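Re: weekly structure request thread

Next one in the queue (449 aa):
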Amino acid sequence: MATVAESAPRFEKTTMSILVAVSFCHMLNDIMQSLLASLYPLFKANYDLDFVQIGLLTMTFQVTASLLQPLVGIVTDRWPMPYSLPVGMASTLCGLILLGNAGSFELLLVAASLIGFGSAVFHPESSRVARLASGGRHGFAQSFFQVGGNAGQAIGPLLAAFIVLPLGQHSVSWFAAIAMVGMVVLSWVGNWYMSHRRQNASKPAISRTLPLPQNRVIWALLILVLLTATKNVYMASVSSYFTFYVIDKFELSVQQAQLMLFLFLGSVAVGTFLGGPIGDRFGARFVIWFSILGVIPFALLLPYANLFWTGVLSVVIGLIFASAFSAIVVFAQELVPGRVGLIAGVFFGFAFGAGGLVQPCSAVSPTPMASISSTASAPTCRCSVSSRSSCRVFPSRNQSEATSLTANRSSRNVTDTPARFIMQFRTSPSPIGPNVFFSSYGEEGSPFL
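Done, posted below.
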C-alpha cells in the first residue's frame, strides 16, 4: 500500500484558502446532515415512530446519498461541473425547510432524500477540489477536508440539543441560513475551480494507466471497500442509537445524551485529522489495520461500562476508528488515477449506504447497542417490535439481581423527555437474563414473546 501512496507528487504549493473553504463547507454540510440523526428522539415523540421507522428514515437519507454519489463522480470525472457544489447545497437547504415543517412521516422521508441528494453532489466534487488544491500533499488535503465534516457531525447534535429541542421542530428551518452561507462560499470555490481549469487547459490530461496489474487493483479496492463498509456500519449505528442507549441505561435527558454523542463525534473529528500525520510516519497499512482491529476490545467493553467509562470508551473508539478513512480514500485514488470523483463517490457513498442498510436490522433483531458492539459475543433477546415499542437486553444476571432491578426501576419514572419512556423490566426464564422493554409514557407494556 505504501508503495503506491508514496508515488504521488508532494511538496508543491498548496492553496490553503481553497482547502479551508471546502473544509468549512464540509463542516456546514455535515452540521445540517447530522441534525437528522440528532433529532430522532424528537421525531419519535412527535410522529409516534418506532425504531424500525427511525431506521427507514436513516436508510432513506443514506441510501439516497450512496446510490447517487458514484454516479455523480462518474459524470463529473468526464464532464467537470464547478458550479454543481452550490446546487447540491441548495438541495440541502430545501430539505431542511421541509424537515422543519413536515406534517407526516412520509414528508420526513422526502426531506431526508433531499438532504441525501445534497450530500451526493457535494462530496465527489469537493473531494476533487481538495485534491486540486493540495499541491501534491493529498493525504494532508484529504484529512483537512474530512475533519471539517467530522467537526460538523460533532457540532450538529449540540445545536440540536440547545436550539431545536427547546424551541421545537420548526426551528430546524432556521438552519437553512447555514446552507445559504455554504452556497455563497461554494460559488467562490466554483469560480476558482473554473479558473484553475482554464490555467491548466494546455497541460496534458492525467494518465489513467493503472499503477498495478488490473486484478491486483480490483482486489485491493474490494478490500478497501469491505473495510470501509465494516467501519461505517458501526459508526452509523452508534450515531443513530447511542442517544437512546444512554437515555435508557443511565436515565439521561435528551440534552445530556446529545452531549455524550458529541464526545463520540468530536473524537471522530480529532482521529480523522491525526490519521494523516500518523499514516505519513508509520505507513498507510499500519493505520488502516490498527483502525479496524484496534477498536475491537473497546467496542466489546462498551455495553458493560458505567456512565464515566462509557464516555471514555466512546472517545477512544472514535479516535481509533476514524484515523484510517483519509488513508483509505487517498490510497484508492492512487490505485485508480484520473477518477477522483468516482473513488470519492464510491467510498463516501458506500460508507453512507452500508451504514444505512443496517439500521432496520439492528432495530428489530438484537438490541441496537449489543448488536453494534459485537454480533458474535453480545447477548440477544427474543422479542417482537410493535409500532410503539422496541427492546434492549442487559448482560445476563441471576434471578435475585433481576428481581431487585425490576423493583428499583419500575418504582420510578425515567426523566421526562421528548421520548417520554417508562422502562419496565420483566424477568425472563431464558438463560440470557431479563428481557427489557419500553412502553409509551402512561401506557402499560406487555411481555415480549
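Residues 5-11, 374-449 have pLDDT under 50 and may be disordered. The CA atoms of residues 287 and 324 lie 6 Å apart.
Next request, please.
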